[in-house]
Design goal:
alpha+beta; 23% helix; 66 residues; 5 strands; two-stranded antiparallel ribbon
């Protein structure tokens, strides 16, 4: 059975953008990690800067869901 809460990469954050000809390019940085709720089909807030912090919170949430 799939756990209710899982870790997913957060949406990248745009650092800067520039234009070359008719195209736009964006430099992005990693936004960290989010926890995704498989039952509600949504990302939970807040985002976590490291994967280990997200894993700890994810384990706590999955234990309370049992």
């Amino acid at each position: 059975m799939q756990p209710r809460f899982v870790i997913v990469p957060a949406v990248p954050i745009e650092k800067e953008s520039f234009r070359v000809g008719s195209r736009y390019y964006a430099a992005t940085v990693c936004g960290g990690f989010d926890i995704y709720d498989n039952h509600a089909k949504e990302r939970l807030k807040p985002s976590y800067p490291s994967k280990t912090a997200a894993e700890l919170q994810c384990q706590r949430l999955n234990k309370t869901d049992e």
